[in-house]
Amino acid sequence: MKTEATHSTSLIVNEAAYNLELLPWVSLLDVLRDEIKLTGTKKGCDHGQCGACTIIVDGKRILSCLTLGVMKNGSEITTIEGIANGEKLHPLQQAFIEHDAFQCGYCTPGQICSAIGMLNEAKAKTREDVQELMSGNLCRCGASKGIINAIMEVKGDYHE
Amino acid sequence: MTKLPSIGKPISRLEGHFKVTGSAKYAGEYDVPDLLYGYVVNSTITKGRIKIIDTAGAKALEGVIEVFTHENRPSTAWFDFQYADMDAPPGTVFKPLKDNEIKYNGQPIALVVATTFEMARYAATLIKTAYAEKEFETDLESNLEKAREPKKGLASMLKPPPAKPTGNFEEAYRNSFVQSSGEFKHGTEHHNPMEMFATTVVYEGKNKLKIYDKTQGTINSQMYVANVFGLKMKNVQVIAPYVGGAFGSGLRPQYQLFMAVMASFKLKRNVRVTLDRSQMFTFGHRPPTLQFTKFGADENGKVNAIYHEAIAETSQFEDYVENVVNWSNMLYPAENTLLEHKLVPLDVYSPLDMRAPGGSTGIHAIEITMDDLAYQLNIDPLELRLINYSEKDKSSDKEYSSKELRNCYLQGAEKFGWKNRNPEPRNMKRGNKLIGYGMATGIWDANRLLARVQAIMTSDGKVELKSAVTDIGTGTLTIMTQIASDELGIPLEDITFSYADSAMPFAPIQGGSFTTATVGPAVKASCKALKEKLFRKAKNLRSSVLSDAKFEDVVFSEGFIFLKENAEVKISIDEIFTFNEGKEIKTTNAAMPNPLVYGKKARAVHSAVFVEVEVDEELGIIEVKRAVTAVAAGKIINPKTAESQILGGMIWGISKTLHEETILDDQFGKYMNANLAEYHIPVHADIHELDVIFVEENDDFVNDLGVKGVGEIGIVGMPPAIANAIFHATGKRIHNLPIHFDQLL
Amino acid sequence: MNNFSYTKVSTTDQAISQIDGDIRNKIVAGGTNLNDLLKYFITKADKLVDINPIAENNSIIRLETGGVRIGALHTNADMAYDPIIEERYPLLSKAILAGASAQIRNMATNGGNLMQRTRCYYFYDITTPCNKRDPGSGCAAITGYNRIHAILGQSENCIAVFPSDMCVALAALNAAVNIKGPEGERVLAFAEFHRLSGDTPHIDNNLKHGEIITSIDLPAKGFEKNYSYLKLRDRSSYSFALVSVATGLDIENGIIKEARIALGGVAHKPWRSTEAEDFLKAKEPTRINFSEAAAIILKDAKGYEHNSFKIELAKRAIVRNCLMALNPESQRPGAKPSL
């Protein structure tokens, strides 16, 4: 196989700038986990089927496993590590703890990033809407009730 | 600060902060220097042998360090028993890369080790394998003539064979006033925890390894690695503080552990092997099972004849057994019983315990058969359960240590509004949707094993507890801290529960709903022993005010040892430490059930489940609108985490009944939907109103905490309750799982 | 995936020249399907041409015909929530929102949606025969587990279905696909875009390699008064359709002037029947008439061991969705059945 050239790629992740030399075949998820060592973003399937790798790129929630690092050159990225304000947890993080909205915790970063994306999109009116618009995030432990309750509580007084 | 007692309080998970901020590290996430990435290659045939495996193309790539196959793997242990783990069924354990024989589709046949994950994955595709294929059998139903009794082994201790026949089933059944018989078919299921199996091995030199593994038992993995690779136990440390779900899949060391250790050991490098999602379907699974029931009852509804047979798949190399048919007579005291469990060995990997193994299978058949009897007798299904209520486990003829199932039935029915049920099927509607109410009983063993815990108090009065036990999302960390806090009279904040490290005192694998009942008493015992030690030191202080006191006479609270009778008489912990020259005070204690007494009573957790389904009459679409589970599981240490366990189990029940199934294509002997897009587990939009009631249950027999365990009971009653509700809604009895909505068209 | 070179382009012409008619050079936009196929080694690429920066293909404009032109690079989510689409083409909006998940809709583009490949288990498993993936190797699905497979228009070479929801609505709306290639621009009617499997199941559609979808035109007629999208599947969301139906009805004085019914999840392309739609013309919007139309649509359907249920299910879904179209407010999130 011929060796392909790396591409200089700049990413702003959680307000920090990273200048990386990336091969095109590295997914954004693996850039975050293996290059930048931000392992809060999870790999649950690597194929866009579980939502565990959800992050916020240029204001929108996306699946980091289905895009390549080189494709996001110049993008602003927020991962779970950038959600809290210093030591102060984001209201959703706090609500997840209080509602016991996780057990093993592996889907949790994706659920939280996805929920923040959803609240920013402001398309969900009812609980049924929230359930539908959060359905791209699987939870195998079965923490669904706590997750939706936590989101509904924060949605009640959520102002961006 | 949390007020004591903390037991019984809905304390939020102590590790919550780490999980919501992404700082909790799972097995495949440890940042270690110069890490190599392993990618596994799997067999594309089902049975036969490897003729040629050509790794030259892969090895030629820049960045590929080594490719391991059966031809060049380092030598490993010789004897079968050295591969056996704590959950190994009778038989011969599968040994990765042992030889050229292929026993099942997806069997690991090579490991590529490279400097990046992408390179390892790509190189794996360049490995060319030529096979000599043999005919295989992978379909349960067309191989029933091979059904035979399972072999017995160590695993039979927690999974005893069915009780011997009692009375005369045939005659009693023939003479029954009503009879119900059924045939039930369950498909294969895979655990599919969200975290894929991963192991990071840190090579620490001189045959010493530190291993971050995805496991439900750190010591189980440690033992396996030490035995298989001929290492000393003390030179193998297995660590697993965060486990991204397991549900039984981590009860046995999986092949990524073998692969990562093998590569690290041979290359003397740090190595990580992470399985991909399709590889998550290449080890244990819940076995496809056929069941046959025949229940007979008299005109009053008393069940007098029970026949329950299960025929389940196993592999060609191990006899995996679960308790499918043992439950009916534990619940219903029929005099005439015939219970059988058989296995059909097929060319698949060995099945593996998966949440409520056997129970969630068997109870489905039992509780649907009971429901059918109720309709035939024109007796309310709940009433039928009460008619057959037993304070005794008839199958062993022992009293239950405690059994508040009656209150589960009553409180569950009340909360659900069971009385609003119109008994006639197809008679409740909402718009053009058919409404169905269904109920079922759940039961699961309340077991307990041996565990050891170390307690260490430091001069600041804070206490650290140590146990090798894992917390796979169950809340173990939080619960153990609560138990210690109450026992020591020290706030939660001053206690650290260190866990999930094989270097810590022994705990068994975390499964079977026995962790709290096993490790909890050991925490309590070590805390008590620590207090005794402190008390002895307090008595020995010069002119101690407690010199004449007995241990029973004192209380530990807020940094002091008081006389119960007179709080003015006290010695501070500070004082003791001053006397002790600031040295920490520690003790290690074991706790286990008393073998002379423990077997004298039957021990179980129970539940009553009530479900409302809505069925679109024209399109068949099924929605579980409401479910209430009332559970009697002894003392509930933490109602918040315990409720989550039950809710999780209920969602697993919905999934098992309506969604999940691994499809085996017998043309290839392989699973065709080995991914999360086509292996359906419920999404948020599938989950509606779910409620949990914990019924008060006091039990001073099971252990000195009175706890039973809640990991499995949430799932067991759900499948029959949903199926019974679907019958009530539609008049259609569907015996197979999962139920596809098109079966209702 | 194998390694490949990567280049970004900012005009359609640059993209065409970068692809250069070479089958090993692939266009990537959202990447939600292509990157997945690359990871599974189903698709192999020498070069990825990233077309995201092409501004000319990322807009929504009103056409003089009264219709609307939507850029191929618009994301599915931006399109579904665009006020013009929500108001004029709510059927399209609903269909898009029934597909994939919110995260994927935020990435996936309109052009990419047309180009997505089947979700047949055997196509996805590179160790089994599949004429679509490996022409001439056979079709394992015909004798295998075919619950999700085709009942209409399939051939003995391939019974895969096309998985899109958005395209079912585009078919119902008589959209047109604007294409640019080395030989210039052309327009394909939506019905002409995707192909049946026939003898060439490896060819999904009539876009020639080296050509690019630049935009999609929606005709003036949007059926915004009476429309509905219904999707039936094995779980409530984030799964592909077993059967889906897009219905648009133009009703005047209680009489159907024009009906459009397109099916998803049942064929190698969105399925329509002019015969059934003609049948409904000038008739009353009643259950009986809708049932009759459904019978016409499914009259040549053929099922296999595990998917024969789709024939009856599709009929009932058509009837229900036509009735839902009379009462569009009844629609539920995720295109679940209502009424």
Automatic annotation (TrEMBL), chain A:
Keyword line: 2Fe-2S, Iron, Iron-sulfur, Metal-binding, Oxidoreductase
One Pfam family recorded for the sequence: Fer2
Superkingdom of this protein's organism: Bacteria
Nucleotide-binding among keywords: no
PROSITE patterns for this protein: 2FE2S_FER_1, 2FE2S_FER_2
InterPro entries documented for this protein: 2Fe-2S-bd (IPR002888), 2Fe-2S-bd_dom_sf (IPR036884), 2Fe-2S_ferredoxin-like_sf (IPR036010), 2Fe-2S_ferredoxin-type (IPR001041), 2Fe2S_fd_BS (IPR006058), Aldehyde_Oxdr_Iron-Sulfur (IPR052914), Beta-grasp_dom_sf (IPR012675)
Transmembrane segments: none
Keyword Iron-sulfur tagged: yes
Gene3D superfamilies assigned to the protein according to its UniProt record, in alphabetical order: 3.10.20.30, [2Fe-2S]-binding domain
2Fe-2S ferredoxin-type domain: residues covered: 7-83
GO molecular function: 2 iron, 2 sulfur cluster binding; metal ion binding; oxidoreductase activity, acting on the aldehyde or oxo group of donors
Record's protein name: Oxidoreductase
Native source species: Flavobacterium reichenbachii
UniProtKB/TrEMBL annotation, chain B:
SMART domains referenced in this protein's UniProt entry, alphabetically: Ald_Xan_dh_C
Domain Aldehyde oxidase/xanthine dehydrogenase a/b hammerhead residue range list: 21-135
InterPro entries for this protein: Ald_Oxase/Xan_DH_a/b, Ald_Oxase/Xan_DH_a/b_sf, Ald_Oxase/xanthine_DH-like, AldOxase/xan_DH_MoCoBD1, AldOxase/xan_DH_MoCoBD2, AldOxase/xan_DH_Mopterin-bd_sf
Gene Ontology MF annotations: iron ion binding; oxidoreductase activity
Domain of life: Bacteria
PANTHER family: DEHYDROGENASE, XANTHINE DEHYDROGENASE
Protein name: Aldehyde oxidase
Taxonomic source organism: Flavobacterium reichenbachii
Lineage start: Bacteria, Pseudomonadati, Bacteroidota, Flavobacteriia, Flavobacteriales
UniProtKB/TrEMBL annotation, chain C:
GO terms of molecular function: FAD binding; oxidoreductase activity
FAD-binding PCMH-type domain mapped to chain residues: 1-223
SUPFAM superfamilies xrefs: CO dehydrogenase flavoprotein C-terminal domain-like, FAD-binding/transporter-associated domain-like
UniProt keyword terms in alphabetical order: FAD, Flavoprotein
Spans through the membrane: none
Keyword flag Flavoprotein: yes
PANTHER family according to UniProt: OXIDOREDUCTASE (PTHR42659:SF1), XANTHINE DEHYDROGENASE SUBUNIT C-RELATED (PTHR42659)
Protein name: FAD-binding molybdopterin dehydrogenase
Species of origin: Flavobacterium reichenbachii
Lineage: Bacteria, Pseudomonadati, Bacteroidota, Flavobacteriia, Flavobacteriales
